[in-house]
Amino acid sequence: MDKIYNPHSIEQPWYHTWEKNNYFAPQGEGEPYCIMLPPPNVTGSLHMGHGFCFSIIDILIRYHRMQGRRTLWQGGTDHAGIATQMVVERQLMLEGKSRHDLGRDAFVEKIWSWKEESGGNITRQLRRLGASIDWSRECFTMDDHLSNAVSEVFIRLYEENLIYRGTRLVNWDPKLLTAISDLEVVYHEEEGKLWHIRYPLVDSDDFITVATTRPETLLGDLAVAVHPEDERYTRFIGKQVQLPLTGRTIPIIADDFVDKEFGSACVKVTPAHDFNDYAIGQRHHLKPLNIFTPDAHLNASAPNAYQGMERFAAREQIIHDLDVLGLIEKTDKHILKVPRGDRSGVIIEPYLTQQWFMKMESLAAPAITAVENASMKFVPEGWSKTYFQWLHNIEDWCISRQLWWGHRIPAWYDENGQVYVGRDELDTRLRNQIPSDVLLQQDHDVLDTWFSAALWPFSTLGWPEQSADLNAFYPTSVLVTGFDIIFFWVARMVMLGLKLTEKVPFREVFITGLIRDSEGHKMSKSKGNVLDPLDLIDGIELDSLVRKRIHGLMQPAMAQKIEKSTRQQFPEGIAAYGTDALRFTFCALASYGREVRFDLGRLEGYRNFCNKIWNAARYVLMNTEDKEISGTRALSLPDQWILSRLQDTIQAAHDALAQYRFDLLAHTLYEFTWNEFCDWYLELSKPILTSATSSEEQLRGTRHTLIFVLEQVLRLLHPIMPFITEEIWQRVAPLASIQGETIVLQPYPKLDAALKNTVIDNELEWVKKFIIAIRTLRSEMNIAPGKLLPVFLCKGVAIDKERYSNNANLILKLAKLESCTWLSENESHPESATALAGELEILIPMAGLINKDEESTRLTKEILKLQKEMKRAEDKLQNPHFADKAPPEVVEKEREKLAEMTVTLRKLEEQHNRIKNL
User: Fold this and answer.
1) Number of helices (H) and strands (E), helices first, in the chain?
2) Going by C-beta distance under 8 Å and a sequence separation of 6 or more, which residues neighbour residue 545?
3) Cα–Cα distances in angstroms (integers) from residue 670 to residues 503, 527, 714, 720, in the given order
4) How is the chain split among helix, strand and coil, in percent rounded to 5?
5) What is the DSSP secondary-structure string of 460-494?
6) What is the distance between the alpha carbons of residues 559 and 571, in angstroms, rounded to a whole number?
7) What is the pLDDT of residue 918?
8) DSSP letter (8 states) at residue 513
């Protein structure tokens, strides 16, 4: 093996080998196990959320493959309607063209060309992450068989009256000119205004004051609402007010929705331009009045003076005109949650338009029952409440989008506007017996991307055909996803899965937290805290990182701020950590929490873990290659102990994976590999392998144990760290007499109860305590680690003497002792430092080892210095300007720092007292 671990020399060659040999395909006759890849957008690049989620899925896939299950990770990408259309439209803009210049068919053809040339970026990145997807089955949501499934579902649900066309309020993007889903609306806190506008009462000099943040929608008001129990306004209920600037009068109505404590407690009701107002309008039978065009200009329903004006220009004019009339009572500054399109960035309008909808109430009931009767369960279980909350309050789903890229709605219209559905025009004519001389035109809209995504678990397996794959792998085993799409994807898959297959699409749903930066902030371009998984794997130099972070930022001040912070945080760029270290970090962070704080310090620590494994493997191979291993073996105490501890580790790994506690899995394997195998067992093996008194049977026993445990460790770690484990396993497997081409298809270790021995565990733990006690005293007394020491032992019980006698050679070697003398009960001993191992006292004579006065002076200086630092930290925490105004995470860090200093001070004082008492 190379002396230095270099992930880049092994990762891509091994992945190529695995894929070429088809190791990721379902194999054997075991029980099927299947996970669906949440399909990333075909336009996308791998981000930290992908890296985290897909690493967790791959751990499960590799583990169950090694468990002998017939394992399928079904991969593929989503056509991502808006995102993909925008990418290609931007390309056309650079050529001075628009999609309308090309026409629909040519534009869609251009998108397909782009997809073939550039759409595979994210699947290449998935390979870099080590994802063991069966690429021979890769799907795309616009593939023919998936598109056929989409049409089949639309037709079936339409024929059952579960899909209908109607006029409803939707999220409307006036730049992209399409309805969008709630998930595509991002709310930003922005500074705005709250205008208090007077609405004069009819036949009265009195008025009612209405507070609004959107005065331009006043032109579409149909009522003013007050709370029915608000005594200030009950006398006005049923009366009319003059709607300013319009010449119309509107009624004052009572509705429980009104908040008596907000603003003037009088609410303008604009059913065509506000979701809450739409609901009020339905309750009071108000016919919505739409005042906007699709591109957010005032339409012919507005007064002549405002027709054709852009919405925000109209706002300014309306405010001016109201002010001239003396109808602006006051204006307050107000922080708004402004809805913006996540793709276009423009403010979204609630907009009344004709769309296609899916009735959801009857579909939601079985989906609720499925979780209530445990046909499907959430992990952690608490997320079922979120699921129930949405399904119990579900509304019909707007499934149409005004785009050209996507699954075109399989509906046709005749010249009279009559609608028919069918897979294509011929099928539509045959289904509906439409003569050939009747002209038909297909609906221009496409289906919401989430429509096809909701069919993903079964359409990818061949539905509506009863294929062998569908019968074998559906329902799938588990879905792994973030809590942010429980509504938009998880619940819809369950509803349509139950409706169309009469089965839940997955038996379990593991909900992960969302990736944040180390301070708990969302990673975003505007914050300049985005990390690219590929940069963490390959490394990136500073100037390239800066260019990447500020690319596309429109505000120079923001770009300068981000450049400065990036250069401060990464003065030398980002080091190359390799895929295995990144995957292990994701695994270690995957608890049941809502957020996952990603810390580069953890990543660096797990890169060191990779080095530790590599160096341990080199030690094992150096002591086993070309040496006798087979034959009669005698196992030493350390051999038996590491085999016993291995069994506990194997069981803990299985338990953690069964509970989706990936953090506990990582902790268990790290502790065993680093602390018990590398730090203790390898050190304990050295005296045996180098002693002239060791028998051949003992040498073979230790060599075999080294190889056996290392090979087991590699298999235990393989689902998390596939590359380094494969590279080392190829060298280790022949020595362990193991057949097979790859670790990928090796069985995961199983508990061997015969190797578990608590007596051995206890004895070796005693040896460790003894050695640690000596090492601790050395450190505290500033004694050189390599200096051989004489020690005295006293007050031990019989079992201490027996254990020392059994393991004297190991203790003398590892504790670096010159001699070890047992003292009788009343026997005196020289001035010594004392440590305890249970009831046993371990005495190190101090004569000639340290200068008592010099050591005392050194410790006094350290104590005084630390006390000053603690005083500064205490004063800082007691200062209200810091404690109340600094970010909570900064205050918490300061508290943790003070706690650490307190522990250190206690240890220094104990050490000082020990020196004084010598």
Assistant:
1) 31, 29
2) 535, 566, 570, 573, 574
3) 40, 33, 12, 11
4) 50, 20, 35
5) TTTTTS--HHHHHH-SEEEEEEEGGGIIIIIHHHH
6) 17
7) 64
8) P
Give me the residue label for tokens 């006698």.
Answer: 805
Q: Give tens-digit pLDDT for 803-846.
A: 999 999 999 999 999 999 999 888 888 878 888 888 888 888 88
| Token pair recorded at residue 835 | 């440590």
- Which pLDDT does position 527 carry in this prediction? 83
Token pair of 386, please? Answer: 């979120």
Q: Is 298 helix (H, G, I), strand (E, B) or coil?
A: strand
Dihedral over alpha carbons 226, 229, 235, 239 (to 10 degrees) = 30
User: Who's near 702: CB < 8 A, 6+ residues apart?
Assistant: 636, 638, 639, 685, 688, 689, 694
How many Å separate Cα 63 from the centre of its chain? Answer: 20
Among the listed residues 196, 183, 245, the one whose alpha carbon sits nearest the alpha carbon of residue 220 = 245
Structure tokens at 893: 């860090």
d(CA 520, CA 570): 19
Backbone phi, psi, residue 251, to 5°: -85, 160
Percent of the chain with pLDDT over 90: 77
> What's the pLDDT tens digit per position in 116-175?
888 888 899 999 999 999 999 999 999 999 999 999 999 999 999 999 999 989 999 999
Q: What is the pLDDT of residue 332?
A: 92
Which residue type does 203 have? D
Closest to 207 (Cα-Cα) out of 218, 215, 199: 199
Task: For residue 731, count other CB atoms closer than 10 A to its CB.
Answer: 15
In this prediction, the residues of the chain whose per-residue pLDDT falls under 70 are 554, 850, 918
Name the strand (E) or helix (H) holding 670.
helix 662-670
Which pLDDT tens digit goes with each residue over 851-892? 777 778 877 888 898 899 999 999 888 888 887 777 777 888
Angle, CA 13 vertex, CA 10 and CA 18 arms, to 5°: 115
Cα–Cα distance measured from residue 534 to residue 578, given in angstroms and rounded to the nearest whole number: 9
Ramachandran area for residue 528 (φ above 0: left; ψ -120 to 50: alpha; else beta): left
